[in-house]
């Protein structure tokens, strides 16, 4: 997507399913659009997308068609819209050119578009950009068509992994034997420093990208006990998510917080990987900061509930959260129940995974 944007002298680009949010089975591959904004589009602004709505209304959704934003919605109407005022303007998106890759009329080929964007300070796209994007869409249709028809599961895996790559918290997927199948960029950056945690190479054909290991024996034993417990997923001996492991960063000061959770239900989105556990790794001194305004806007969460949500990312117990916030433990539990209800989650690991998509992007 970066190459497409660069070729078109655009600031941002998207390959996405405009009528289907990621939460409903769609996909998004983006250049320079934060994961949190993609989540917000899917949960709140899909219905306010004037461009898509108008293209559907006038019957412009057919394979290979190219449209400018101003051909669909006059600029003065766009800037007055909720979609622009509350969403697009925050990304400085005002100029748009899009090509329909798939119209959504063929089974297993959902409506798919490739769009490029510019800010208010730039000129609109012209006929040459439209022609180039039309050619790009043809190439994309060949590649995507094969993957969606023949390798649909693997393609959805790729887009899911790209989503994990955009997170600023470290995330690893572990196989059924505990081997690391995937590590996002943030995890690889933490592991490459060799301070507390690292990856030990294994058999290149059997052991994924390697094995997690801690720098000292005590931490290593605790780490692999946690991994074994998550993989076993014994319903009679559940491990509490908030009891994160704290691993010293070797000769450096500070700690890494490691949270390990089982993958309870195998999702087709993982394709052939079929992970057995998820591992979250954060630097205790650099805990991601939630975008509180976005959390409140999307889910109607109160300021007090936002503070509890932020503390949950430390990987501590509810007692620790209560102590840090100078609250009673029952009050913290009440806030947690409200967070579950408002976000539609049911367990703490689910809630934390949602919160990780709403962290502040520096």
Topology overview:
Elements: H1 2-7, E1 12-16, E2 28-31, H2 35-45, H3 50-57, E3 66-68, H4 69-72, H5 75-80, H6 82-87, E4 95-102, E5 112-118, H7 127-150, H8 152-165, E6 170-174, E7 180-183, H9 185-192, E8 197-200, E9 211-214, H10 217-232, E10 245-248, E11 255-262, E12 277-283, H11 292-299, H12 303-312, H13 318-325, H14 329-343, H15 348-356
Helix pairs in contact: 7-8, 12-13, 12-14, 13-14
CATH topology (level 3) name of the largest domain: Beta-Lactamase
> What is the percentage of strand-forming residues?
15-25%
- Structure summary, number of beta strands: 12
How far apart the termini lie comes to 21 Å
Main sheet: which strands, in order across?
2-1-5-4-3
Percent helix among the residues?
40-55%
**CATH class of the largest domain, anyone?**
Alpha Beta
CATH superfamily of the largest domain: GAF domain
Radius of gyration: 22 Å
Number of distinct helices: 15
Unreliable residue stretches? none
Oligomer: single chain
Which class do the helix and strand fractions yield?
alpha+beta
Average pLDDT: 82
CATH architecture label name of the largest domain: 2-Layer Sandwich
